[in-house]
Structure formats: structure tokens, C-alpha cells
Specification:
CATH architecture of the largest domain: 3-Layer(aba) Sandwich
CATH class of the largest domain: Alpha Beta
Radius of gyration: 21 Å
Low-confidence stretches: 1-8, 34-53
CATH topology of the largest domain: Rossmann fold
Strand content: 15-25%
Structural class: alpha/beta
Helix content: 25-40%
Shape: globular
Largest sheet: 6 strands, mixed
Length: 309
């Protein structure tokens, strides 16, 4: 019997608590920590994650594939041979999820709404964190409200976070239209909430990405490890073939003309610019970018992505 929910049961425009709980078995198979494990008893497991949440264990000769950031320069200078520091990570490392439920996320031309994909991906990471014995916290926001859960241990913290996701007013369409202000506020909160050594996940389409966003993400990445999950609809990367298309937005119907080549190029370039900015952030130490389209299944995508780490 498969642990993954049947595709027919996945609502394309909203999520429910039962569905997110059903993702537990798949989420528990996702390993957020490093593949090199020393011990799971007191003392925790080894990890490349940075910050003050790790404790120095020993220095050993450098091995191919070791992170250059962990080179022990004092021992290297004394012995004349490169050595690397080995850290023992605290078992209760904070894992903090930042989930974007703004109106731009309530959109899809295929698969499910970007918000649905993001919520399901967040649920998978939630269950992974619980299985790994990590503390779990989160910031869930839309234009109308901002809900915050401080890092806590255990299944109860997971259920509280999933309930915050499901209960957000953004799913009902009652939230007023807004701009990037809600996301900027949530990023500023993250700079205060994420203590050094945390593992931070940002689930968003990054609509409105600007220099201030980048500055805040760089600030978070200076003492935390950051995973950028870029949720997008395929039509955002490139407009459909030239023609007129009807788009339903709530009770309204809009007609979009995609025949003008200059418009098509501007549209494509805007997406490429956003992706280039995200790729630039992903070149920072400790930052990783994962792209997830609205017709991708996070329950299949994320286990593959983290298996490659």
C-alpha cells in the first residue's frame, strides 16, 4: 500500500489537514541532515550545517569532498598538511518553514495552485523534521495575516504548524490584494526568529523579488542554512502559443492576448531575471535552490532532491 495520497484526492485549489497528515510517511523518509552519521544518541549527528548550533568535535586530515569552509587552519599550519574540523551537531536543530500564501500563489494553469504545491512541500519537510528529532517552527503569511510558530519539538508542533497552514484566510479568497510588503515583513521576522545554526526553508514563487529581499535572505544565510523552494507555474516561464486565452480569477474572466512578440519576450525575460536572482543567492555558502513547478509532485521531487545532497 502506497504511503502517498491518491492523486484524485488532492484538491487543486486548497489543502486540508487530513491530506497534509497523510504525507507523514513520505516526509519521514526525507533526511535533512548530512549522510555522514556518527551517532544518534546524546551528542547528535554530524552535519555540514553552519552556525552556533554545532559543537567542535575534532580535527582530522582533509578528505576529498570535505567542505572548504571547515578547514582547520591552525592545525594545517602546524602540521603542514590540510586538516578539517569535524563538528557534532545538536540533535534539536531548529528547522523553520517560511510559507508564502499571497495571492500570486493562488494560481495555476496545470497541476495544482502554487500555494497547494508549497503547502504539501512544507508538510513533507515538517514530518521530516519531526522524524529527525529537530525543533520545528514556521511563519505562514498572506496579505491579510501573518502567523508565527516558535520552534518546538515533536508531533504536536507539527500539527500546530499544519493547522496554521490550513486555517489561513488566503485559501478562502477573503484576503485583500497586496504587494510585496507582506513577504518583506515575514522575511524581517525570519531574521529575528532564526537563531544561528537553523535550517530555513523558504516556499514561495518569489513574486516581487527585489534587492531588499536579497539583502534579507543574505542576512539569514550568514548564520543559517537556507533552502529556496521556487514554486512556479509553467506558463510563468513562457507564455502559451500566440492567441487569445480566457483566464478565470475568482468570479471574473479576463482575456489575455499572447500574440504580441515584444510582450512575450518581456514576459519571458521577467521570469528569467527572477530565476537568475535566485540562482545568484544559491551561489552563497549554505544556500540551495530547488525549482518546483505547479504540475510537479513534491512527494516525488523532494526525496530525490535531498537524496542528492
Amino acid at each position: 500500500m502506497s504511503a502517498r495520497p491518491e492523486p484524485s484526492r488532492i484538491h487543486p485549489t486548497a489543502v486540508n489537514l487530513r491530506e497534509l497528515i497523510q504525507l507523514r510517511a513520505v516526509g519521514e523518509m526525507i533526511k535533512l541532515s548530512a549522510p555522514r552519521v556518527r551517532a544518534y544518541a546524546a551528542g547528535g549527528h554530524l552535519s555540514p550545517f553552519k552556525g552556533r548550533g554545532v559543537e567542535f568535535d575534532e580535527s582530522r586530515p582533509y578528505q576529498e569532498g570535505d567542505d572548504l569552509r571547515t578547514i582547520d587552519w591552525r592545525v594545517t599550519a602546524r602540521t603542514g598538511k590540510p586538516h578539517t574540523k569535524v563538528f557534532r551537531e545538536e540533535r534539536n536543530r531548529p528547522v523553520i518553514l517560511w510559507l508564502d500564501l499571497r495571492r500570486t500563489m493562488m494560481f495555476a494553469t496545470r497541476g495544482a495552485y502554487k500555494s497547494v504545491v508549497a503547502a504539501r512541500a512544507a508538510a513533507l519537510i515538517t514530518w521530516s523534521a519531526v522524524a529527525n528529532g529537530d525543533q520545528l517552527g514556521g511563519l505562514v503569511f498572506g496579505e491579510a495575516e501573518h502567523e508565527e510558530l516558535r520552534p518546538r519539538l515533536g508531533r504536536r508542533a507539527a500539527l500546530r504548524l499544519l493547522q496554521l497552514i490550513v486555517a489561513n484566510r488566503a485559501w478562502s479568497g477573503e484576503a485583500p490584494a497586496g504587494d510585496s510588503g507582506a513577504a518583506l515583513h515575514a522575511l524581517k521576522r525570519m531574521t529575528r526568529v532564526a537563531r544561528p545554526g537553523s535550517l530555513v526553508f523558504l516556499f514561495s514563487d518569489f513574486a516581487g523579488l527585489e534587492s531588499e529581499w536579497e539583502r534579507l535572505i543574505r542576512q539569514i544565510a550568514s548564520h543559517c542554512d537556507v533552502q529556496l523552494l521556487h514554486i512556479y507555474d509553467p506558463v510563468e516561464a513562457e507564455l502559451p502559443p500566440p492567441g487569445e486565452y480566457r483566464i478565470h480569477v475568482g468570479d471574473r474572466v479576463h482575456t489575455v492576448d499572447t500574440r504580441d512578440m515584444q510582450t512575450r519576450e518581456r514576459y519571458r525575460q521577467a521570469f528569467e531575471d527572477r530565476r537568475a536572482r535566485l540562482e545568484g543567492l544559491a551561489r552563497l555558502p549554505g544556500v540551495r535552490l530547488v525549482g518546483c513547478a505547479s504540475n510537479d509532485d513534491p512527494a516525488a521531487l523532494l526525496p530525490r532532491q535531498f537524496a542528492r545532497r
